[in-house]
Amino acid sequence: MQIPLPPVPLPAHLVDVAREYADGTRTAAEPRNAATVVLMRPSDEGPSVYLLRRHVTMEFAGGMCVFPGGGVDPRDFDASVAWAGPSPSEWAESLGTDEETARALVCAAVRETFEESGVLLAGESESTVVEDTTGADWEADRLALESRDLAMTEFLQRRGLVLRTDLLGVWDGWLTPVFEPKRYRTWFFVALLPDGQRTRDVSTESSEVTWLGALAAADAADAGDLMMLPPTYLTCLEIGQHSSPLAVLEAAQGRTVDMFTPGVEALGDGFTLSMPDHLRPLVAARRS
């Protein structure tokens, strides 16, 4: 099955449902805060990104290719978490949130990346990063984090590690449309795969994982070989405009999140989901 990519034609019944939410006839589901990380490494074709294909049986985005990520856990709000890099108040300014939420989002981004790829953005000091997380003891901790038997703060303290929040860059923010029964307010981060670490197919939520050039991933989605939700596709397309992961991280400097919720807009004789204005030229060039 090929998922239509931006601009996405909407069936008439869905347009009618969206209008009912707009006029207050229906009440939208309350979104859950989430974080996702575009994990990158260099390739001859520019930034390569790490993608997981979610099990087709998953309630949300089943069968879709996604970046590592997930919902914020209550324990991600722990203010005692070991921290290196920009302060939570600086992150709050970039993420467009209060300081408490910003801390939780950054913690969730690092935790979910470790849970779903085995890659850990942490080190023994503000200038170091762990080099190998493939041992049995690391796997035991990863599983305990995944099952919520272990909190991120406890995990870092026991191992004498600090979150390397400076290894993350702010990229974007997407809020699931109002007519979806399950909604997420998701902050997108970018990060470079640390030297010495490697990704592992460990996520219980995915059927397979892969590294693909960002533009190659967009091409595969266009061809119907990969299924992506529009935010994932558009992120691959935008990141693919840069020459390297370092160029992406440089572009992330100074970016702030203006959370975008796709709405309904006219498309010829029908309707489509809207997209951020700064991404329209990229899609238009691809469709011309």
Report on this structure.
It is a single chain. It is globular and about 60 Å long. 32% of the residues lie in helices and 23% in strands. Strands 1, 2, 3, 4, 8, 9 and 10 form a 7-stranded mixed sheet that branches. A 3-stranded mixed sheet has the order 5-7-6, with no helix packed on it. It is an alpha+beta fold and 288 residues long. It has 9 helices and 12 strands.
Summary, kept brief:
The chain has 288 residues and is an alpha+beta fold. The protein has nine helices and twelve strands.
Main beta-sheet strand count, sense and barrel state: 7 strands, mixed
Low-confidence stretches: none
Protein structure class? alpha+beta
Helicity range: 25-40%
Number of helices: 9
Distance between the termini: 24 Å
Shape, please? globular
Mean pLDDT level: 90
The portion of residues forming beta strands comes to: 15-25%
Order of SSEs, N→C? HEEEEEHHEHHEEEEHHHEEH
Rg for CA atoms:
19 Å
Number of strands: 12
Give a topology summary.
Elements: H1 12-22, E1 32-43, E2 46-54, E3 65-66, E4 69-71, E5 83-84, H2 88-95, H3 99-117, E6 122-123, H4 136-146, H5 152-159, E7 162-164, E8 168-175, E9 184-192, E10 206-213, H6 214-222, H7 230-239, H8 245-252, E11 264-267, E12 270-273, H9 280-287
Parallel strand pairs: 1-9, 5-7
Antiparallel strand pairs: 1-2, 1-4, 2-3, 2-10, 6-7, 8-9, 11-12
Helix pairs in contact: 2-3, 3-4, 6-7
